[in-house]
Amino acid sequence: MSTIKLEKVTKSFGKVLAMNDINMIVNNGEFMVLLGPSGCGKTTTLLTLAGIYKPTSGNIYFDEQIVNNLPSKYRKIGMVFQNYALYPHMTIFENIAFPLRAMKIPNKDIDKKVRAIAFNLGIDTLLDRKPSQISGGQQQRVAIARALIKEPSILLFDEPLSNLDANLRVSTRAEIKRLQSTLKITTVYVTHDQSEAMVLGDKIAIFNNGYIVQLGTPNEVYNHPQNIFVAGFLGNPPMNLIYEIEIYSDNGQLYITKDKKNLLKIKVPNNLQEIKRDKVVFGFRPEDCKISAEEESGITGEVYVIEKLGRENLVTVKISDTFVKLFSDKTNIKENQIVTLSIDLSKIHLFDQQTGESIL
Amino acid sequence: MAKTGELNFFNKHSKGIFNFFAYMILIIVTIPIIIAYLWLIMRSFSTDMNGFIPVGLTLANWSFLWKSNSNIGLPNIWIITLNTLLLAIGVAAINLFLASISGFAFSRFNFKGNKSLLLLLLLLHAFPTIALMVSIFYILNAIHLLNTLWGVILLTSSMDLPWDIWIIKGFYDSIPAELEWAGVVDGYSRIAVWWKVLIPNIKHGLFVIGIFEFLAGWSQFIFVTTFIFNNSYWTLSQYVYTALGDYRFANYGLLTAISVWYIIPVALLFAVAGKYLTQMSLGGVKG
Q1: What is the sign of the dihedral through the CA atoms of A209, A214, A218 and A221?
Q2: Which of A1, B181, B253, B269 is 20 to 30 A removed from B217 (C-alpha atoms)?
Q3: Which parts of chain B register pLDDT below 70?
Q4: SS (H, E, C) A68-116
Q5: Span A18-38, mean pLDDT?
Q6: Residue A132 is nearest to which of B176, B181, B287, comparing CB atoms?
Q7: Which residues from A are below 8 Å from B186, CB to CB?
Q8: CATH class of the structural domain B65-282
Q9: How far apart are CA B257 and CA A161, in angstroms?
Q10: Residue of B111, B185, B203 to mutate when probing chain A, most A C-beta within 10 A
Q11: CA distances from A99 to A37, A76, A105, A156, B232 (A)
């Protein structure tokens, strides 16, 4: 059990800044997900925690101890890699036993521990095989067993599910979640899949270009994105964003317009009325919006395409030059039809188009 | 695919027919070689050959193994065989060691000049050895390794080392860095990871280099004949060459027996290692 603290950590490779002023606290037993597109610095952060990279500046604390230069073997970490990194020349038994051999534990105890953990993870029948002789899902379990066998204080996962097929990914995701909540080991988990992040994380740190752009609980980052990047990254499909929006107030009502057409009348918080913005970005989530074929007050647009998802349809509507997506179970909506969108005004988002920051 | 019932003779027996032709070609190609070796072996156990028919079975040709041949300028065969083994094993050991550590450095460390050094290595290997003989002579003389087995061992090693490093670097390159990270996270030092994780995974490459360098040492002739003057430091290649002497007066019985003696260890090596050599293309990391 350990607390992790990163304090103004940067890491550069030559001129490339992979981690930029990273501040983060992972509390004891917490599940922290590092989320972001590829090349955003999340894996670098994980490898810095593992002791494979040393930070260029700043400090990393495990509990109260600075571990910047502490070799990996003293960090009490277990790690699961994206391609599992099982040792091809060893049997599954030897793979799982490898960390224990480094600790010079007697053979009898090693045997007992390996068999116990293999039994718990359902891989006890595979112990005599080589990694190339078992399936991807089984390799994944072996990698997890190897990470857990030395009873680490911190667990690190580097995109552990990305090599599995879709069904297995969902079931393994649930198992990892259950494993972590049972063992209560402080965990840092890297992924580029936002649904994985939402399901697994107690907290999510969203990375972009080496910065943490937002850190919070899944609810916070989903419902209150601090900027356009987070809004556009989370959700499936992500938040609808309409650019080039202008705001003006009239009689205490705030209007947002695009192309000089009044799109929406909104009652907005007082503080916003004082802010004069040239251009803003208007955002709303697909699930916070209803579509109707009748003329109502709201935003009008033309149905572009309807995708059947089974339980409901994903409808793409063209508003002026922007495409927005939303869910609907209505059957009377047809392609190329003019429709009205009514948006839940309590759940809209406005961002400064220049800085990308949320202004609501 | 045609239905089973519609298969004609060639469909049904396609594999057998393929194998038949494959073996026919192999037999035709290897027959001259096999005959040459058979002739060599039969001649070494006979007083003369009448075409391919041995005449007069004898062990006299093999007497060089227990009788001195110093009257025709040949040293003790056992010392020479030991020298040859030392040369072959020495070259293999030195190159295995140096290639496995320098290949690692070239593959894993991003030091300044990594790429240009690699290219330089390849360039070094491209020089014909024979063009360097005079300068090598001076250098060996200057460092007092002229007329020593050590000199020949180091020379043979260094000539092949660039090539070996290239091969081994390729094997290291095929191992993902994550495997090394996993070892470090699992509680081992970088050197321990190298020994316990990387070396077992490049063993096919090491095996190939070991065999090739053993053979390079075993068959080394040009350096032995040029840089060794004392016949107690000879190797078998020089021994065979001397036994041949002037072809008009050569004792073919002795010559064939020595030649067979020279071939035996290599044949044994291939008998044991042939299986691994054909597997070498599978090298690197699976999964």
Answers
A1: negative
A2: B253
A3: 1-7, 246-249, 277-287
A4: CCCCHHHCCEEEECCCCCCCCCCCHHHHHHHHHHHCCCCHHHHHHHHHH
A5: 91
A6: B287
A7: 73, 98-99, 102, 146, 150
A8: mainly alpha
A9: 65
A10: B185
A11: 32, 11, 10, 15, 53
Q: Tell me how many residue pairs between chain A and chain B have CB atoms under 8 A apart.
A: 69
Q: Which CATH number fits domain A240-352: 3.40.630.30, 2.40.50.140, 3.40.50.1370, 3.40.640.10?
A: 2.40.50.140
Provide the token pair at A256. 């947002």
Question: A11-33 burial by CB neighbour count: b if 16+ within 10 A, else e?
Answer: beeeeebbbbebebebeebbbbb
- For residues A263 and A299, the answer to whether their CB atoms sit within 8 Å is yes
Residues of chain B positioned with their CB less than 8 A from the CB of A50 = 181, 185
pLDDT number for residue A293: 78
Q: What pLDDT score was predicted for residue A274?
A: 59
CA A239 to each of CA A35, A222, A304, A331, B285: distance values in angstroms, whole numbers, following the listed order: 17, 9, 18, 24, 43
Q: How is residue A140 written in tokens?
A: 């994944």
Residues of B in contact with A52 (CB under 8 A): 181, 184-185
Hey, what are B248's tokens? 């008009």
Indicate the domain borders of chain B.
4-58, 65-282
Interchain proximity A88–B181, CB inside 8 Å: no
**CB A41: neighbour CB atoms within 10 A?**
23
Q: Do the beta carbons of residue A235 and residue A193 sit within 8 Å?
A: no
Q: Where are the domains of chain A?
A: 4-233, 240-352
What is the ipTM for the molecules in this complex? 0.82
Cβ within 8 Å of residue A256, ≥6 positions away: A245, A246, A247, A263, A264, A266, A280, A282, A350
**Tens of pLDDT, residues A331-359:** 778 888 888 888 888 888 888 888 888 88
Tokens of A68: 């910047």
Look at chain A and count its residues. 360
Tokens describing residue A61: 């604390």
At the topology level of CATH, where does A4-233 sit? Rossmann fold (3.40.50)
Chain B residues closer than 8 Å to A102 by CB? 186-188, 192
